[in-house]
Amino acid sequence: MKVIIKVSGVGDIPNSYLNPLKMVRLIFIIGYLSLCAFPANSQKKGLHIFQPLGRNTGASCIIDSTNLQIYYAFCASDILNEDTYRDLFCLEIGEKHLKFYSQYLADAEENANKWSKAHPKANSAPRVSPEGRYHNGWSEYQYSQWFISNDTLTEYSCFPFGLGKYNCYHKEKYPEQIWEIASDTMTVCGQLCQKAVCRFRGRDYAAWFTPNIPIPYGPWKFGGLPGVILKVSDKDNLYSFECVRISTTKKTLFKDDYSRYNEIERRKLLKLQRGINEDYGNYIKLTNTKTGEPVRIFSEYEPIELE
Fold first, then answer.
1. Contact status, residue 261 vs residue 169, Cβ threshold 8 Å
2. pTM attached to this predicted model
């Protein structure tokens, strides 16, 4: 039996899901998952674009607290081998805010900040070098952060070396997906999940959600099901997120200083990201040192959002 549901904006994060005083039962159900060990193929081919010089993480502020964090392997060739992950993302679920970001990048920036504090007289700090299969280059996914609050999703995008002037953000209503729920089941990170499918911004996806954790969110922009999404991938397996760990550690939820980022419309951001990925040399005005001619470097690119 299949059920079709239309998902509307989810509004404020319900207190019944996230208020610490009302999460005791939920935490009891999933608490043991914090012991789960870390047990999708990459689209980024061709040129490895230079990393940004760094973000203003030193000016981070606390915006919420969280006692539920879900970690997702991004585009893993082998879910049991972390060396095959393109990235490791974290979804932090707070009382009023959700945050989705690259854990690899966060760890690298934290290490760089610690080094700077330990060497206050140094003229420069180490370059950020996140883990993952493309740790030496820029990725619009690794260098972006997503926040959800009051039925609004905000994406902050940090651009590669030489293109910091393009750093920007966009806001949109929390995206809708029209899910078709099936009877198929699968176990993901120790949790029994149910299948749902949808078409979202040009791609067909299959998701696996668990009613055992009744929170209507998931990785990236996915959500709206009667349980947290622990696994989702498109039918071509170009993009995938799969839960590898769930933690109930109490943490503060931080937000970096994005005051210098310019607002941009979503489709313009997609066009900008495509242009930089496909022709970085043109954007940084790269020229041949001998002839002065422009150097055009084209890279194959397959974005997650097609429309």
1. yes
2. 0.83
